[in-house]
Amino acid sequence: YPLVVVGAVGRFSRDAGAWKIGLPLSLIGAAIALYQRIVEEFASDRSLAARALVQMGQCHERLGSQEARRAQEVYRQVLEQYADQVESVEQARARLAILSQPPQGPE
Q1: What is the C-alpha to C-alpha distance for residues 60 and 68, in angstroms, rounded to an integer?
Q2: What CA–CA distance (Å, rounded) separates 60 from 92?
Q3: Among 17, 50, 94, 97, which one is most buried in terms of CB atoms within 10 A?
Q4: pTM of full prediction above 0.70
């Protein structure tokens, strides 16, 4: 996450509002790290791990189009490794379908 860049730009431009960009990025990054830890530490609780992956994918989506590819990877992981977790698989499939659509441009 480009927090160093955001901080530097804010500092050198004397933009007091840079924290409004940096803070949400930090919080989303922390959430991704937490979900990853849940997946690793509670791997035996397949339902929890699958739900954590879906949430992680949604966090990646919130970070923008660059991270949408990572979100797709996470959703595919749910489909491949947690096929027995019906609700999480349905959510992952739905998100993948949305992310696979071509971007809507102005007409």
Answers
A1: 6
A2: 13
A3: 50
A4: yes
